[in-house]
Amino acid sequence: MKMINLIVNGKDVVAATVEPRTQLADFLRDTLNLTGTHLGCEHGVCGACTLLIDGVPARSCITLAVACDGASITTIEGMDDDEVMRALRAAFSREHALQCGYCTPGMLASARDVVLRMPDASEQDIRFAMSGNLCRCTGYVGIIKAVQSVIAERREAGVVSPENPRTTLGPVGSGHAQPMASGNTAFAGTTKLVAAPVQRAAAATAPAPVVPAKKAGAPDSGKPLTTLNQSFSIDFPREQVWNFFGRLGDVTTCLPGASLLAPPTETHVEPKLRIKVGPIVAEFEGAADVVRDAANHSGTIYGSARDTKSSSATRGEIRYDLIEEKGGTATRVEVQVGFALTGSLAQFSRSSIVRDIAKRMTDAFAENLRARLSQGGSEVADGSAFHAPAAELNAGALVFSVLRDRIVAFFRSLFGR
Known about the structure:
By secondary structure, the protein is of the alpha+beta class. It has helices spanning 24-31, 83-94, 104-117, 123-129, 141-156, 238-245, 248-252, 351-374, 395-415; strands at residues 2-8, 11-18, 50-53, 56-59, 72-74, 219-220, 223-224, 226-234, 258-260, 268-269, 271-277, 280-293, 298-307, 313-325, 330-342, 393-394. Helix 3 runs parallel beside helix 5 (141-156). The chain starts with a strand and ends with a helix. InterPro entries: 2Fe-2S-bd, 2Fe-2S-bd_dom_sf, 2Fe-2S_ferredoxin-like_sf, 2Fe-2S_ferredoxin-type, 2Fe2S_fd_BS, Beta-grasp_dom_sf, CO_DH_gsu, Diverse_Oxidoreductases. This is 2Fe-2S iron-sulfur cluster-binding protein.
């Protein structure tokens, strides 16, 4: 799995996890639910999947998502306020330039590029420039007329200068790539559009990653994050708890059902979370990066994961603050969780039930944390960390427990007991 940062339709998609082989079109459709990008031939021939990468038209069905790390992606959903696109949509409707509409999103993206780059284009120029977009319905006459009419309207309005969005050589979106550092086992990228890159290294001594700051609960990939607040107290000094939280492997495996896919570093961890909901067993695999603030004893975790057996995926961020209690002999852990769940398991993300389940998960995490700290922080004889996973998370049992408690509370209130 690789972690990437994108700007999609003007919104930050931070720390998204994808497989190296995932095409950009599949990532947009399956993970971000941007289904306006259509898949036709899936060989880069028909043009139905055309969208804009850094303002330049590109075939998303043959573009790897990891190759777009740091790029700005604009799909048909993100062009509602584009002046040229509004004119093209009106012209396509007026000139009957679409029938079934399947090719239309890619056709419009390519037509927009023609209008901007070729203000003096002839009919032959337009036909040649649009030859990479295939349509099996219209015969192309209405499409050509629509593009011609928009060019004519802009010429009458005094817009005659060509605009070329391409500013760098090489494949579209490649302007953000940098060579991988020695010993770095992950795809490394930088970006001029996202505040700072997320870098992963195999050695624990590698520089800490800098993750773009983003408030929990802010919109991400078009879907707002559900925000939950939890807290618990443990009878251990804050510095001891802080040091334990610095060992990502131990912290991760305190969560019920969590295990590790690879050895963690000081700032990066790749967890696997097994969840059972009745007969459904989901196994989420993902990655997360951590930024810690030692001065304030706080940290923020940015991560995402995907179920290996379905289209379900989740992304979010967790902020924790450690506060001294009882004169420094105890610590209160305050946690703010922002998450978004998509796919078939999203039906279990109703906030009222999730809040109760989160409370039970927090209690289980706190109990495991107390046990690890009581054992000296889970360090074995040679000083290495011990990452034994906690018990499997049975979400079905949690849901049943929540519903049972609610039914009991309802009848108690009904009969005044």
